[in-house]
Structures are given as C-alpha cells and as structure tokens.
C-alpha cells in the first residue's frame, strides 16, 4: 500500500517500520536480563548469598519475563502494541536505574541480606524487558498479511533472540573494561536508546490507530482492510484471553512452544554446566558454545518463518521437532566433543525453526484473539525454561555425571515425540477447522 494511502487516513508508521521498532524493542529488552544474570555472582559474593537465594535471584527476571507476557500481549488486542511495549520497556529501565543506584550506594562493602528483597524486586523489573516478546509478536502479526506473517514473525523473533548470544560475547569484555557500574550504565543507555527508537516509529496497525481517531469499528475495519490489514481483534483484554483460552488449539500451541522456546531457554541455562562438567571445557569455551547455540537457533528462526509461509506451519513444525528428536538422540549417545557439538547444532536448528512454525500457526488458528493467544503461548510456553533444567539435574544427581549428563537429554526425546504427535493432531484436523 502506498505511503499516500497511509497519510490520507493519518496512519503513522508502516509494516516495515513497525517490524523494525518491535524488533529493536525486543532486542534491547534482553539487555537488563542478560546483564543481571551474568552479574548475579557479583551480588552473591558481596552479600554472601546461599545457592537457594542465588537461584531465586536469577529466576526473578525469567518469572516476570514469562508471566507478564500473558496480560501485556492481550493488551495488544485493544491498543495495537504501543502502550504495552513502552510500559514494559519503561519498567525494565526503572529496574536498571534502581540497580545502578544500589551499586553506587552500597556495592560492594555495604551490601547485606537486608537489601536482598530489594534486589529481587529490581530483578523482577529487569525481566519486564523480555516480556516484550509477546507484545511485539502480536503487534507485527496485525501489521502483516497472513501470507507474509511467517517471514515477518520469524524475522522479528529471530533477530530479537540474537540478543542473549551477542550479549554473552560482549559482557565479559565490558565488565573487565568498565567494571560493574560502567557495564550497567552502558546497558541502560542501550535500553533507553532502543526505547526512544520505538517511541518514534512504533505504532499499532491501521485498525487500532483509526479507532483512536474516533472512526467507528466497522468503518475502521473496512479502511484497514484496504490498507492491507487482514486480522482484527474480537474484544477487550479479558475477552481476548477468554476467547483464545476456549480454543483447544491454543493449548496445543502452548505445548509445542514449551518444547521449542521453553526448551531453548532451558538449554541456554543448562549447556554451560554441561560443557564444563561433562566435557571439562573451560568456562569461556562453555560460554561461547552456549552463545553459538543461542545465535544459531535465533538466525535459523528467520528462515523457518519463510519456510512456514511456503509449506505451512504444520509441515515446518514436523521438520523442526523431528530435528529436536534427532539431536536429542545424538546428545544421549555423545561421549566425544564432536558428536556433542553435532547434537547441539541439530537441536538448535530444530528449536529455531520450531519457534517460527508455532507463531506462524497462532494467527491462523486464533485469528480473532491473536494477542491473547500469543500471550498464553509465549508466557506459558516459556515455562519450559524453568521446568526442564531441574529434571536434567535430577538425572545427574541419581545417575552420576558420567551417565546423568548425556541421559538427561532423554527429556528432549520425550518432548520431541509428544510435539510430533501434537503437530500431527493439528494437521489431521486442519481441514475441519477451515470448513468451520
């Protein structure tokens, strides 16, 4: 659609700008979490925290980053994405500014247990940045026609998810060169800069802007269709959450995303320990191998989105979860570094493609509540990052390191098989869904 057509109806931004804005918002949203997780050791040493306290501290950003995806993504169905994205980014900025103040005032000698609850709260606020994922995914889905949503959503999530891997490479040098305070100031600056970019070009799809201009709903839908928008929300935040929750396919997609993205989060947390303890790799090598996994899964997600546009989300998901299953089998058998590296690569490819395939299917199966469905899928699916690592740790505890580390990947064999069965269920009932 021409720029003149958008200007005629006072529509700010366009699909390309909205995609760029959402991607930048999601990318910089990782800044607070990446820095907080890496520097948790500094707070542990200064405050004398025990392992349970450290575990809770590191979990706080992941908790807010997962739970807040649900209501904030549903908010997109009434706003278009601008307010929920800016709210989450602002909360993350507040968290980082609070941590800077804490470091200036108390670090390291004056930190004590009495400040631990405040540290938990600031960690929770920092995690708001990664809750932007579901907001951006819904915002982009409304801007793009369905035949291009796979590519657009894959690009958004793939580029945005590069952040953890890139930050893993940059943070050691930043901490060594600038110190703890300097690193926090630099990462806060990055987050503020990304937020400013979003303020300038990040706006909701035409329908939402027209409604804000006072255009009646039906007229707004008609004009938005002329401008290229194809899907529209059904109601309020609670309504869109309820509508998507009543659709059983939403919960199938949650389960699939639990394996692909939740499994991805779990491995980014588990792989450093796996490489250090089982293969005796140095700490830096283990970090780089984990960053490789993260970047690989993120980059392939872009191609996975395009593939989903060409052959459909279900067929792409079959390929993806088949790869996860194959990679997990290799990891169970891997006793050597080359074989383990191959297994990690195959799993990373499968998870990246799977993430793209799942969100290609969300607008198709839940077109009247994309925000609500994206919230359920993105929020609850991410809980795989909490659930899987303790299970893998249980294998090591019960079987010992020599058997426990490789055999722990049987968790992914089980998840891969279940995911394939669920994709088959979607594929086999698709024709009935279209008929309805």
Distinctive features:
single chain, 436 residues, mainly alpha, Growth Hormone, Chain: A
Q: What do you see in this structure?
A:
By secondary structure, the protein is mostly helical. It folds into 2 domains: 233 residues, Growth Hormone, Chain: A; 203 residues, MFS general substrate transporter like domains (Growth Hormone, Chain: A, Up-down Bundle). Helices cover 84% and strands 0% of the residues. Helix 6 packs antiparallel against helix 8, helix 8 packs antiparallel against helix 9 and helix 9 packs antiparallel against helix 15. The two termini are 31 Å apart. The model has no long low-confidence stretch (mean pLDDT 88).
Secondary structure elements and pairings:
Layout: H1 3-8, H2 15-38, H3 40-47, H4 51-67, H5 69-79, H6 82-106, H7 116-126, H8 132-143, H9 146-160, H10 162-201, H11 206-212, H12 217-226, H13 237-246, H14 248-277, H15 283-311, H16 313-333, H17 337-365, H18 370-381, H19 384-399, H20 401-407, H21 410-435
Helix pairs in contact: 2-6, 2-8, 2-9, 2-10, 4-7, 5-6, 5-8, 5-13, 5-18, 6-7, 6-8, 6-10, 8-9, 8-18, 9-15, 9-17, 10-15, 11-12, 13-18, 14-15, 14-17, 14-18, 14-19, 14-21, 15-16, 15-17, 16-17, 16-21, 19-20
